[in-house]
Amino acid sequence: MNRILVSRTRALGGTAAAAVGAALLAVPGAAAAQTADCAALGADPIAADIAAALETAQACDVEVRISEYASAYRTLYGTPEGLLHLVDTAEAVQDEEGLGHLDPTLQPADDVLRQTASPWPFALSLSGGQTLVETSGGRLGWDGAVPVPAYAGATAEYDGLAAGLDLSVTAGESSAELRFTVADAAAWESLATGLSLTSEGYATADEAGLYLSTGRDYDLIEMSTPFAVRDATGAVRKAVLEMDGGGGITVRLPEGDVGAEAFPLTVSTDWVYYRSAVNVWAAYSSASPDLGFHRGHAGLGLAYFEAAGETGDALAGPYCDGLAAAECTAAEAASYWTFFSPEPRWTVDSYDGYGLRFPVVSASFRVDAAEGAACVAPELRHAEYGGWSDAGWSGLPDDAPAASGACDGGAAVYDVSGTVAGEWSDNGWHAPLTLAMTGGDATARFDGGSARLDVYFDVESRKVAPRCTGTAASPEFRGTSDVPYGNYTASFWRPDLLGTEVSWTATVTDARTGTVLLATEPAAVGNGVQRGTVLTGLDDGAYKVAYRFESGDGGFEQTSECHYRIDTAKPDVIEFAAIPGTNYIGETATVEVTVADEGFPDGVNALSLTFDSEDSDPATTVRLEDGTTAVFDVDFDTTRTWVRAEVVDRAGNRSGSDSTFLGGTYSRNDYDGDGFQDLFAVRETDGNLVFYKGNGDGTVRAGASRGAGWGGMDIVMAGDLTGDGRDDLLARDNSTGTLYVYPGNGAGGLNARQSVGGGWNTMGSFTSAGDFNEDGLVDLVAVSKGNGRLYLYPGEGEGDGGFGSRTVMGTGFLDNDTVTTFGDFNGDGHDDLLTRETYGQYYHLYGGDGSGGLLDLYPNGYADTGLPGDAEERIGQFTGAGDFNGDGVTDLLLVDEPTGELRLRSFATESPRHTVADSVVGTGWNAMRLPSAETDWTYDYSGDNRSDITAKGPGPEYDWPYVYHGNGAGGFLGGAGWVTDGNLDGFDLVETAGDLNGDGRSDYLVRKASTGALYVYPDWWREEDRIKLGTGWNAMSAIVSGQDYNADGRIDIIASEKSSGNLWLYPGKGGGAFGARVLIGTGWGGMSLVTAVGDLDHDGQDDLISRRNSDGCLYFYAGRGTGKLANGVKIGCGWDVMNAVASVGDFNGDGHVDWVARHSNGSLYLYAGNGKGSYSSSKVIGTGWGGMDLIV
Predict the structure, then answer these.
(1) What is the CATH number of domain 949-1191?
(2) Of all helices (H) and strands (E), which one includes residue 194?
């Protein structure tokens, strides 16, 4: 056979395939040297890299090998034409860089036999031990002592591996054939169980043979061909391998035991390195359908087809197989060759940055006819895979036509340019290329190892691109009135070697009208970054620059577009707006920022809005594309939080920084700074102010006194009025009408008070701790006693707790005895107000509107809201508690009149806010006063929170009670009194009693003259609703009620006994019941006109006045809160002209309790209390009262 060595002569890139094929068959000739350096190149010029190879090839007109791509199976050359020439050979016939021509001859080294020169080592046992063969991937062991071999050339013989068992190993350049000769069944048994396989990586054995993989990703693979068994008859079968967990291998035949007639037999396999640098080929026969013949061999001593009586080691088509029979049998043959590409892209660092491409120019496959055989060129096919010996005839892959060939000089030659270009032209991974001859009408007989693939790759570097980012959908914005053109980047790799010539043109167009504004002449593209120029004087609008790049030879053409939007208008920040609602210090609120830009939004432009607030780091930036507002979170740390915003459009136009201050208010009831709502209350018994530390779960700790002297003060928890970050307390001194702010000290205590102003006794109920105008400051809300208007006093934020000029929030609130701030109950972001209507005890929720006004949210009542619905609940005091249990919803604290329990009413987090829980916080709270200023309605029988007077006319014909409605200013509304439904015939005593039966309305004490029975009558005077307290009360000369003398939160009765002159206290128990009487005074037989006047001296305890008959003087008896009275203090004389005295509460609206007295001349006098235990003045408020039997 005449194998042709690799051609290193000049190749004609771009010529026809036949010419290329002819050139490949030419005998190398010496190129004429152009320089002295060229003459020194030698017969096999080589260069370090692609650039040096192409430089030398062009200078010396010779192909130059690239050292890093020079191997025994595959070599890449640079050509004088600037091409890359790949020579792929089926066998290792080329020089390996660093090793030269490979030599598999075995040489002893380090107690093993190795190939003389090969990068794919096989180490064979030389001095015994238990290792037969060791490779890069693993080792094949033997269960016994390995004999010392005899070796010659590339073969080592291991005789007597076991009794009747010999081994022959023949090394190749990248593989080794192992052939066992088995004499008998005992030898077979030794082989069947004597092998083992181990590896540092992965190893296994099965019917396909041995398999090993190592390397970082187990990508370094070694495999063996299936173990082929040829028995004494010549038949060839495939053995099955099984490997246990310890690496032990069992060899067996699929059909079971081997009969004696089969011996002697041979077992052979090829151990093969599979690498991308090792091309492979294999032959297949239908006569042995389970086996493939690696490089034509089957362990038979000869090539398979030669052993079967044929010529050549690679056949295609029909043939007669005589391997296992005296006469040959018809069979089919096929041969497959698999070649690998070096992937030329890796020949240049950063190849993609230069736009390097390596398209296939031409490709040729050839294989020599077998020595002594005529050349036949069957159809060449492109198979999915092949050339591997782990598959047999029955497992061959699908294939497709690749090329038709022709015989030339004893070789079949094929133009496979199209097939190779389809597989290897991309810059991505080049898959192995398998070419196959699968048959034909004539038998083709080849020297399979002579196969060779020549591929010529062009080297193109034409990467050029405009320096712009704008597209039609997302143009590049410019804040100047110009558009750039001619600015591009060209990255050409070695244009001196490749002869790169490219020109460019640019056309500038108004994108809206299509008008061409500029068209340039062609200009040469320069390598590197080109700055270009600009077209100036353009209006705001959309523009397109279209580029065309092309080479002079027509081989390269590229078009690109750059889109620009000129925008010179600056955007603006229009408004900062806090989301409606109160902003609390320490919480996070939201701020809406509104911006504007000419023509925005337009689907193209975008605004970058940067927002930051005081102490924020970093600032927050949002991108606006289809709206002009954005919402940001702001942490409120002070009452005035600075915020700033700046907006930039895509053209870089900036609005400039715009800023403002947003108001915040501190948490309303956290007096010790622990984040939980606390509670202040006044203890009625001693006038102490008591602090209850909240636990955050709806409970409080034991109360701690914060000082005495608070009995005459109305208090409300006000939030931070002074702006120091601590919650404060508002208190009204009822003796003077002065309103004070007590600054919190942050530790549950209070600092020295500051006066807010006087005259506040003219106001009834009041509340604070709400920011109703949402300026970030705490406001005050109060009801005027005079006109019933609800006033808003806005917080000033001056640090002194003062308030600004009042505005009217609503009218008609005179009939409400309590108002309290209720947080944001309905969840609309505004503070709300809860009030209670005195007459009927109905509750109303008013929603704040954020600007100092109110909306009646539930004008029809609250049966479905969980708030107290009517008098059935018998709620005494109540106050908004803030979020007392930490569930995010405001809560209500209320005192249950019958039980004295302080209850926390919590609500659902969703709307409607039905009650979630009604828990008991504490007991004994009838003796405590909550922080809500409640209007006294003891003497109000009309429900307008003004004191009234009830009187009975003389004689049986006038036995009806008349109610004279007070006007709140010391007089009456209208003339005549209002006649009730009651009948007082037979009754000799009527007294104002306050709410004795717990229905939320004022009652009367009435005594039956004939029996001395004492009754509680409701204000509607129905006998069926009266409560009988007992009989024998006609033993009393005076009976008074309506006040709480033992400070337990329940109304008591005081009575003077006729017979003894003892003064008795009957302590109230609620619901019209009373406890056992207590003696509180003696010597009262000489007293008359005993009157339960209320808290006359504003010390928080209810008092008594009475006339001493001996001197006609009036005396003041101060209550002590224990049921006892202080010694009497004379407050006036000449009272012997008076024949009736009645308590009327604050009849003139000045904040002090008053009383009325009837003169003997029938005039009715009003005595205005001075808040100091006496009166300031008196005046006649009616005449003709002498005819009234009873006045209360």
Answers:
(1) 2.120.10
(2) helix 185-194
Residue 291 token pair: 């086996």
- For residue 290, what are the β-bridge partners? none
Whether the Cβ atoms of residue 312 and residue 319 lie closer than 8 Å to each other: no
Are 799 and 724 in contact, with CB atoms under 8 Å apart? yes
Read off the tokens for 44: 């096999």
Query: Which of 174, 34, 32 lies closest to 104, judged by CA?
Result: 174
Listed residue (479, 263, 463, 453) closest to 339, CA to CA: 453
Topology adopted by domain 574-662: Immunoglobulin-like (2.60.40)
CA dist 705 and 928 (Å) reads: 13
Measure the CA–CA gap between 540 and 597, rounded to whole angstroms: 13
pLDDT of residue 51 exceeding 80, the answer is yes
Look at 411 and 697; give whichever has higher pLDDT: 411
Tokens for 691, please give them: 């602090």
From the candidate CATH numbers 1.10.443, 2.60.40, 3.90.320, 2.40.128, the one assigned to the domain spanning 500-568: 2.60.40
Q: What is the structure's pLDDT at 590?
A: 81
* Exposure of 378 in the CB half-sphere (CA atoms within 13 A): 23
Nearest CA to 383 out of 282, 451, 274, 313 is that of 282
Identify the architecture of domain 679-929 in CATH: 6 Propeller (2.120)
Per DSSP bridges, beta strands 209-214 and 1190-1191 are unpaired
What would the pLDDT profile of 1024-1079 be if each residue is shown by its tens digit? 678 898 899 999 999 998 888 998 888 899 999 999 999 999 998 887 889 999 99
Between CA 76 and CA 85 the distance in angstroms is 6
Domain boundaries, the chain: 46-81, 97-134+149-275, 335-346+353-388+400-420+431-458, 500-568, 574-662, 679-929, 949-1191
Q: Are 1166 and 1156 in contact (CB under 8 A)?
A: yes
DSSP letters along 672-731, please? SSSSS--EEEEETTT--EEEE-B-SSS-BPPPEE--S--TTEEEEEEE-SSSSSS-EEEE
What is the predicted pLDDT for the residue at 867?
61
- State yes or no: pLDDT of 914 exceeds 50: yes
Local confidence band at 22 (pLDDT 50, 70, 90 cut-offs): very low
Place of tokens 């059935």: 872
Q: How far is CA 577 from the centre of its chain?
A: 26
Q: What is the identity of the amino acid at 37?
A: D
**Lowest-confidence region among 341-355, 520-534, 860-874, 969-983:** 860-874
Q: Which pLDDT score is estimated for 806? A: 92
**Hey, what are 886's tokens?**
């930490």
Q: What share of the chain is helix, strand, coil (3-state, %, to 5)?
A: 10, 45, 45
Strands in 248-252's sheet, in edge-to-edge order, are 103-109, 112-117, 123-125, 131-134, 139-142, 195-198, 248-252, 240-243
Number of H helices and E strands in the chain, helices first, is 7, 98
CA distances from 651 to 512, 568, 597, 607 (A): 19, 7, 12, 9
